[in-house]
Specification:
The protein is an alpha+beta fold and 338 residues long. It has 13 helices and 10 strands. The protein is 47% helix and 18% strand. Helix 1 (3-21) crosses helix 3 (40-52) and helix 1 (3-21) crosses helix 4. The longest helix is centred in the last third of the chain and has 22 residues, at 316-337. 32% of the residues are buried.
Length: 338
Amino acid sequence: MTSAARKETILRIIVNEYVAKAVPVASETIASSYNLKVSPATIRNDMARLEEEGYITRPHRSAGSIPTDRGYRCYVGLIRQGIELPTSEQSFIYKVFHEPEREIEQWLKLAAMLLARSVHNMAIVTIPRAPRCRFKHLDLVALQDFVALLILVLYQARIKQQILSFTKKVTQDTLATVANKLNAAYAGMTVPEITSGDLELSDEEEQVTRCIVDRMAAEDKKGFGKPYLEGLHLMLSQPEFARSFTIINILELIEQEDWLGKVFSREPGRGETEVIIGEENAEEALQDLSLVLSRYGIPDKASGIVGVLGPKRMDYTRTISSVNYLSSLLSKSVVEYI
């Protein structure tokens, strides 16, 4: 075994031991538990070089070693090719996933529950959505002489409401006429399609159209559908979360409506699993954590995110393979859904 290959092996051992036991790994542990066919002194020298190169660190001078963010990143690069869940676990998940027919929301909740239990961390599954939302239906309800309630229905079961104030009295008959005209004109359209049209509009129709465009544009900016979260308690039971302020910061973040959009600098491509480790996270509250995520669905039609949030000391092999498998099952479900 070359020196470089041996250092890779030692790094793998340190990560695996630390993931399993959550205690720093000493050179004596590696020498006595693993037959690397080199002396303890050679192992100590290799660990010293790994520390110098920034792959491991020691919490205290006399303590063993733990991986750094760079060490985890190197480890993920070493293990991620060709890893799969054991066939028995794939069969179990497939069987549960294909029990009597369910609504899409039930599939997503089930996927999140299965993933959380598989990896013992928090699972995230978002509702699949198109790159741009599309207009489906509009209702206008008179509330007072100058005030109406706009109810905007978008495809994929999204409903938005807003109060509108007009500059002149509007009757329910007038509002019904406006709604009928815009429903016929905008059916199935996206924001660019609505705004590029040359439809002649009255003042009231123009005002309603502006509201529709504003609400649809706001939806497009969100980028992610509603997330289903499972296993928060599993994640927070890990030793890393013994400090209360760490938990508070995480809870404050995930309570925000569009926190996923703030966390992910880009969506992974379909079938591509992205691993975001420690300080690679843009959000400070997540810089002691890792994210493993994948996009599922049909490109340009409807897609969502499936992923795991947990401590950097997570079982990356199991997590990546679990996310990969759930992503493939969800993609097949989306084909049936749309």
